[in-house]
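dumping this here before i forget
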Amino acid sequence: MGAHAGLTVERITRAAAELADRVGIDKVTASALARGFGVKDASLYSHVKSLQEIRTRVALLATEEINDRIASAVAGRSGADALTAFADAQRTYAQQHPGRYAATQLRLDPADFADTEALARSVELTYAVMRHYRLDEPDLTDAVRLLRSTFHGFIAIEANGGFHHPRGVDGSWQRIVSGLHRLLESWPRTAQPARRA
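structure:
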C-alpha cells in the first residue's frame, strides 16, 4: 500500500484503540499497527512521533468516550443516583473496551495533553457528581481519590478474574457504590482554620 495508504493520526489512533481492546494496551506496537495497515513502520512514524504518542492518543480517545458516557448517564441525576450512574458508566466502558480503559490508567506526560479538553472535562464531570456532598478542600480531593481508587481497583480485579467467591460481582459492586454514597454523606470534615477578624 505504501506510505500514502490513507494514513492519518485519527485512523492510527482508532486502529490502536481497537487493537488494545483485542490484545491489551501493553501489546500495541508500531509494528503490529503497521502490519494492520499493510505499510512499513516508517510510514506510521511519518504521522506520529512515537509509540508513547500512540498510547497517549488512545488514552485521550478513551477519556473522551468515557466522558460522553458519564455525561449522558448522570444528566438530571444527583446524589446516590448520580454516583451510581457515574460508577456504572465507567465499569461498563471498561468491560466493553478493556484495552482503551487500561490506557487511561497509564502514566502520561502532562505536556502531551496540555492542549486537550478531555481531562478537564473529566474533572468537571466528577466534581459535578460530588457537588451533592458539599465537600470543601482537602476533603473533596480525598473523597475523589477514594472513589477513583475503589472503582479502578474493582474494575482491574474483575478484568483479571480475581474475584473467586461464589457471590456475584454485580451484587458486590452495587453494595460498594451504595456504601460509598453513605460514606460521602457523612464524610468526616477536616477542621478549617479559624479566620482572623
